[in-house]
Design brief:
single chain, elongated
């Protein structure tokens, strides 16, 4: 009897993990509207009734997927540390390499795209729990560095979006369109960071307003 009591929680966690994995795979391949709970249960090897026992609503299942796929705690802790040191290059590199790295899971991007295109309720959940966290954090850091005189005056939110935009575009090319990478992940991250910071860091020339010639 004691052994059964110990095994039950483990078995329950395994079933939940299998259901989350099955749902994630199907949602990423077919979208949310194209996937039924019956198909999810079948892919996980359980009954639909058991699926609803663990996840009474689809929203509960979406939340579980987000909890597993969109956990940014480790990343935020890492960038917090380098932010205190004002290590600009390291901070931007950490953010870029979080997504541009060998073996990065493409399902998160596919889920995000499906949720947006289908006008799904999960779109706002995705954005608030992942993209907004990083965008707002990066914008706040850029604002701080502008106030300290390290970065030239620029809209910090647009600057943050511009950097994240490079990363997202890279992922679209290589994770969705399957275009082969011609440089290593490390070289790619380093190049993106160098290009971005070169335009952001304040120096004598960039500190002055430049007149744009009329054509």
């Amino acid at each position: 009897m004691p052994r059964r009591k110990q095994d039950a929680p483990s078995s329950s966690r395994t079933r939940q993990a299998n259901l989350i994995a099955a749902a994630t795979s199907l949602f990423a391949a077919r979208g949310f509207r194209g996937t039924t709970t019956k198909e999810i249960a079948k892919a996980a090897g359980v009954s639909e009734a058991l699926l609803f026992k663990y996840f009474p609503t689809k929203r509960a299942l979406y939340a579980a997927i987000l909890a597993e796929k969109a956990n940014l705690n480790a990343l935020v802790e890492a960038i917090d540390e380098v932010a205190r040191k004002r290590d600009d290059k390291r901070l931007f590199s950490l953010i870029a390499s979080y997504r541009i790295r060998p073996g990065a899971d493409p399902t998160m991007l596919r889920l995000l795209l499906f949720s947006g295109l289908e006008g799904h309720e999960l779109a706002e959940m995705f954005f608030s729990k992942q993209h907004r966290v990083i965008n707002d954090y990066l914008a706040g850091y850029i604002q701080t560095r502008i106030q300290e005189g390290a970065f030239r005056p620029i809209d910090p939110l647009l600057a943050a979006r511009a950097f994240i935009g490079m990363v997202v575009h890279h992922r679209l090319l290589h994770e969705i369109y399957r275009i082969p990478m011609h440089r290593s992940h490390e070289d790619t991250v380093a190049t993106y960071v160098e290009l971005f910071l070169t335009g952001l860091v304040r120096n004598g020339k960039r500190g002055r307003k430049e007149r744009i010639p009329c054509r």
